[in-house]
Model the fold of this input.
Amino acid sequence: MTNWRDLPGFVDEKEALGETTVTIETAEIRAACERAKEEGFTFLADIVATDYLGWGGKGVSGYIGTASGRDLNHPSTQGYQALPQLKPKRFSVSYHLLAMQRPPVRVRLQCWVDEGEHVPSVISVWPTADWHEREQFDLMGISFDGHPNLVRLLMPDDWDGHPLRKDYPLGGEPVRFSGAE
Amino acid sequence: MTLAPERPARSMRDWPVVFPPPYEGSRIPKRVPTILDVPPELLATGDIMQINFGPNHPSTHGVLRLIIDLDGEQVVGLNAVIGYLHTGFEKTMEYKTWWKCVTYPERIDYVGYQNAELAFVLAVEKLLQIETPEKAIWMRTLLCELNRIHSHLIFLGTSALELGAISMFWYCFREREQILDLYEMVTGARMHTRYFQIGGLAEDIPQGFFPECRKFVEWMPHALDDYLALLDRNAIWLERTKGIGLLSGEDAIALGQTGPNARASGVDWDLRRDQPYLAYDQVDFRVPVYGGGDVYDRYRVRMDEMAESTRIVDQCLRRLERMEGQPWIADDRKVVLPPREELHTSMESLIHHFKIVTEGFRVPEGEVYSAIESPRGESGCYLVSDGGPKPWRVHFRAPSFVALEATPTCMHESLVADMIAIVGSLDAVMGDTDR
Done:
């Protein structure tokens, strides 16, 4: 194999800031990871999910404040100078792979999911994916199919919601007696 | 674009593991890689005692909770429970402007604070495509190496303390104190310095730093001799560490281990040498690699690294001493705060200062993953920017988080007393683990 296009489920590749991002169909991500591992990417550095809810859309250009994004009481909410490029789905799941050679090669395999969609687990390819996937499940609510122990990792077991989602407010934790008459 | 260009002649499966493995095959637990299950035949005996070790115990280095199953003194089951120090740094940073975020990473890995800060700052600089002056690059290298020594000293002091060598703790903290004094001199703070600005350093290197740092560089090899004299022929220390907590190179890579933990398992991998950042391609240093994969080799790797770091600090000092009067931060007024004295005379500087402090500077849209070699291994920072003044997503690839994943694999046929040595030798910082 000499080409990213040979990876199973290849969708797209792009170079930016010296990094390669290869988009893979969600259902094929495990097969793509297996193939990449055979090609020398023996090391999984990280799995990270990102929530793009409100990315570049109208009404959420500010992070806090009013619908138009402008709030005089909160600096930094002046809205965008340019709208960022829209994303295909709500969540991205990125796999940072490393080929341990000189010079090292890094690549980011990325797949996209919407709320409620599942991602195949890569724990059978790299055992280190165990806690990475559990963390993303816990904080971002991404479900990984085939993970033998997909339970919360950092938050308490009985926690509601997934804190790193954009619709989960900062300070979203209920505080006892606050607002009590 | 090829998948893995310039592959070395040797098979990728053999490299970078350079030593024969301490055991054959894989010891990673089969069902869940991070949980050591009690064998059913042992469970049937009814003699298994489950013990809650932590989250508050002096030897858990913070708040790590281990649920261990004991058969007599033998550890037969283990499950690590983390999250007791989860503070939501990644969420908080999404609500802060980029330059206010710089204070957070060092509180994540609070022992390797300077390296954690560097990982974030380098990632932002990659997004901004901003050039850092040479003086800042060398000073960053120097401080990161001082910080590496500091981190390894804490490892050495506390690990030895747990195994009964209490005096080591005082010796290690003697030199740690000198490093913290140097930090205080340069940055005004002993830890959590916020000295690295996006674009360079927050302040120029103060007068009198070089002679003080030179004194430390000259003293440190003697201190290392002290440590070796105390530990390296200490029969109890050797007995408690040799052949304990075995991890093979193959398993280390499969479990994502990096840094001293991987290098003690024969994995010849160091980002400072293999993917150089800062000035590491211009300094001379060796990467210690040992093949035993046990607690003792993890200790030896860190001891050797301290000696090498001292050499790097020395080389940085020689370069920095000739850089008097050079700029220490990039001259990019859209990102870097203007010099304080200009605020009294220049309207433009005042405006820039006001805009950066209130609104924050904007970082171009994009995503980056930047990795450095922290004292604990690959410390990565993943950033997504939407072009606004605040990060859209911040994520840290925490080496301690990954190190703890190897605990059940290392715990093969070990006693409960060995467990203390093994958990200590993996050198996890709970702030880094839980973020």
